[in-house]
Each structure stands twice: as C-alpha cells, then as structure tokens.
Specification:
With about 290 residues, the protein is mostly helical. It has three domains: about 1-60, no CATH class; about 60-110, no CATH class; about 115-265, no CATH class. Helix content is about 50%, strand content about 5%. The strands form two sheets. A two-stranded antiparallel ribbon has the order 1-2. Strands 3-4 form a two-stranded antiparallel ribbon. Helix 6 (about 165-185) packs across helix 9 (about 215-240). The radius of gyration is 23 Å and the shape is globular.
Length: about 290
C-alpha cells in the first residue's frame, strides 16, 4: 500500500512513525483511531500495524500547463481545470454542510427528548457495533479473533470500550424511532435486502459474519441503522423543500431528492404511527421552548 509521508491521509500519528525508515526496514506502528473516524465502530479503538518498507519514491510535481490539464481532466487548458476543481470543491463543501446540518438535527432532537433506555437495547446496540467492527476488520482480510490477538484485548474489553457509544446509539434509535412512528415511516424490506447483498462480498468466508447477515438479528440491526439515517435524510429534505432559499447560492444546483427518502413508506397504522416504534418522552421543561 503506497503511503505518502506528509499527506496526513492516514490515522493521526501513523506517518510520523515511518519517518527515516529505509527499504527493507520492518516497523510496528501503534495508533488509536480518532473519535471522529468515518467508520463509527473503530472510533477510539487502539490498533497495531506491522509494516515492511518495500520501496521509496520521491513525488515530483509535473508542470502546471495545458498538457497536464488535458491529461488529468476532460478540459482543454489550465483555466478549465481550475473551473472544474472549483466546481468539485463547492459540491464537497455543500455536501459537508448538509451532513453537519443533519448532525445538528439529531443533536437537537436528543437534547429536547427524555428517554428511558432499557439495558437489553444498549446490549443490542453494542452487539451491532461489535458486528460492524468485525465486518470492517474482515474487509482488511483479518478475522475478529486475529484482531483481538493483535490488540491484546478480550471481546469483553472491546464491548466495555464500546458501551458509551452503544448507549448513545440506543438513545438516538429511540428518539428517531419515535419520530418515524409519529410520521408513519417504515423501512422497506428491499432496502434491507440491498444492504445485505452489499455486505455479503465483504464477509465471504467468515462463517460467523455470513450467518449474522442471514439472521433476523442481523436484519434487525441493519433495519435500525437504515431507519436512523433515512429518517434524518427525510427531515433534511423536507426542510430544504420548505426553505428553498436556504441552499447556498454559491454552491452547485441542489441535487434531486435521494431515492432512499422517496422509498420511505407510511405505516398502515390507522393512527399514522408505527406499532413497533419505541416511545420517547419529551422533557416537560423543554416542551414550550421556541
């Protein structure tokens, strides 16, 4: 795997431990995944990587001219390349802002709700986090047992480290499930089937993970995860529909409403709610807050 020192694209602290390494050197890199790591199940998890330096290269930037622009993009000159890069940066910034807005919606809902979280639900969310961690490790060609041995930890210690995150996910599940129930929203089974099919190649040969994906427990965890994300997605899209002027004027054209939110269907309950949605109680102190 090529590693560019100074790019800061890897886990913080990884590249610094390879400075001054020479061809043929073997090094052990010890790091901890940051709390904002994109793979939620790995956040805050310590890890060790055994590295062997196969070759060293120097990166020499090519001249910034029209020939370079034509080579790297479907443009005619440097000006066209700059315009394309600016378009991509605007799209990236708009997408990042949209996700930050979605996070704030969840935070607001969490702060304005009082929920009672049963221990079995917390344990189930921890189960889901462990399963997500195992699938992530499987994508790297390792079994969960090999990971535990490399990390020098037991499965019980991993579960203890994930407990705070599991409790927060359980709380989020209860709050967003109550919103989904009030809106009469269900996650279509075909979306769960699609998620299972997408995950199957990643766990091929890992019998426990294959069995988990095929089990009702696995489908229940996937359903809960999809419900969380789709409900938030729908809230964001509904807000932008009602506030068309809120989309940044400098940004790209607002993309079409994601197909996932269009797939959300109302529950058949006469009251407009979901029969299996957990209940969340709003805090009386915050009920009248504007």
């Amino acid at each position: 795997m090529p590693i560019v020192l100074g790019s800061e694209r890897l886990i913080p602290g990884f590249e610094a431990q390879l400075v001054d390494a020479k061809i043929g050197d073997a090094a052990t890199v010890s790091v901890t995944f940051p709390d904002d790591y994109q793979e939620e199940s790995l956040r805050g998890v310590p890890a060790r990587f055994d590295v062997v330096i196969q070759e060293l290269r120097a990166r020499i930037p090519p001249p910034l001219d029209d020939a370079f622009a034509k080579q790297v993009a479907n443009v005619e000159n440097v000006e066209g390349l700059r315009a394309e890069i600016l378009t991509r940066l605007k799209a990236s910034a708009a997408d990042r802002g949209r996700h930050e807005f979605a996070d704030k919606i969840v935070e607001y809902a969490m702060e304005n709700a009082t929920v009672e979280i049963p221990d079995p639900l917390i344990e189930e969310e921890i189960d889901g986090l462990v399963d997500e961690l195992a699938r992530s490790i499987a994508r790297q060609g390792l079994s969960f047992e090999q990971y535990l041995e490399a990390a020098g930890k037991s499965a019980e210690e991993i579960r203890a480290e994930l407990r705070d995150r599991g409790e927060r996910r359980a709380r989020t599940l209860l709050v967003l499930s109550a919103v989904a129930g009030a809106e009469g929203i269900q996650v279509p089974e075909e979306l769960i089937d699609e998620e299972v099919r997408r995950a199957q190649p990643q766990v091929q040969g890992q019998r426990k993970l294959e069995a988990y994906l095929a089990s009702e427990r696995g489908r229940r965890a996937i359903r809960a995860s999809l419900r969380r994300s789709l409900v938030v997605e729908k809230i964001v899209e509904d807000w932008f529909d009602g506030n068309p002027g809120a989309w940044p004027a400098w940004g790209p054209e607002r993309p079409p409403r994601p197909a996932a939110t269009a797939a959300l269907s109302p529950a058949a309950s006469p009251a407009g709610g979901s029969a299996d949605a957990p209940k969340a109680k709003r805090s009386p102190a915050k009920r009248s807050a504007k």
